[in-house]
């Protein structure tokens, strides 16, 4: 069961990297893998509480695998550019900043979702752009695949712990001759 969980993590991360332009695909497959892991825990070890508990590390697995791919792709193939903020538009909590580099204005704006952006007109910052145009540009300081990998490892560790607890629980119940389907 531990290997199954690790295979789900690796497979969803690979799917997210292959479909880096569309997060929907990796989110759908990630949710399916998380639900499959929950069902396997429930069917093999007859412990609904462990199955529901596996949802928490499943969230870390889902977020880590989906968010790791764009940051990793930008780190590997992204082009680092020094730009200046020349214009800003605000629509609710969506801030759109027009950027200008050494070669003129960039085709893609920097988008910030929130109430208090860190950028003002005239600020100079470093961004990473995707030469393929698949991934939205990001400020270079905000691209951190190590943090996403940490989330993925935390989720995988949680699934491993749950698999070990479920296996121990099943072993103890079989040794004591209790084969009923108690929830607890």
SSE inventory with pairings:
Blueprint (H helix, E strand, L loop, with lengths): L1 H17 L4 H23 L2 H6 L1 H23 L1 E13 L2 E8 L2 E2 L4 E4 L10 E6 L8 E2 L5 H31 L9
Antiparallel strand pairs: 1-2, 1-5, 2-3, 2-4, 5-6
Helix pairs in contact: 1-2, 1-4, 1-5, 2-4, 4-5
Order of helices and strands: HHHHEEEEEEH
- Give the termini distance in whole angstroms: 20 Å
Number of helices: 5
- How many structural domains in the coordinates? 2
- Name the overall outline: elongated
Q: What can you see in these coordinates?
A:
The protein has 184 residues and is α+β, with helices and mostly antiparallel strands. The chain folds into two domains: 2-75 and 144-175, no CATH class; 79-129, OB fold (Dihydrolipoamide Acetyltransferase, E2P), CATH 2.40.50. Helices cover 54% and strands 19% of the residues. The chain has five helices and six strands; from the N terminus they run H-H-H-H-E-E-E-E-E-E-H. Strands 1, 2, 3, 4, 5 and 6 form a six-stranded antiparallel β-sheet that branches. A hairpin with an 8-residue loop joins strand 5 and strand 6. The two termini are 20 Å apart. Keywords: Membrane, Transmembrane, Transmembrane helix.
């Amino acid at each position: 069961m531990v290997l199954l969980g690790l295979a789900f993590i690796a497979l969803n991360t690979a799917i997210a990297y292959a479909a880096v332009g569309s997060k929907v695909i990796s989110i759908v497959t990630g949710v399916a893998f998380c639900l499959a892991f929950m069902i396997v825990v429930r069917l093999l070890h007859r412990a609904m509480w462990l199955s529901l508990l596996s949802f928490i590390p499943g969230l870390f697995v889902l977020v880590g695998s989906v968010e790791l791919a764009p940051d990793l792709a930008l780190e590997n193939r992204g082009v680092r550019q020094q730009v200046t903020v020349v214009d800003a538009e605000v629509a609710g909590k969506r801030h759109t900043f027009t950027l200008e580099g050494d070669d003129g204005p960039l085709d893609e704006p920097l988008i910030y979702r929130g109430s208090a952006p860190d950028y003002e007109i005239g600020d100079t910052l470093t961004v990473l752009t995707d030469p393929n145009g698949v991934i939205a540009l990001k400020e270079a300081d905000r691209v951190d695949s190590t943090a996403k990998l940490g989330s993925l490892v935390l989720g995988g560790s949680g699934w491993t712990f749950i698999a070990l607890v479920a296996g121990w629980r099943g072993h103890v119940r079989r040794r004591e001759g209790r084969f009923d389907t108690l929830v607890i």
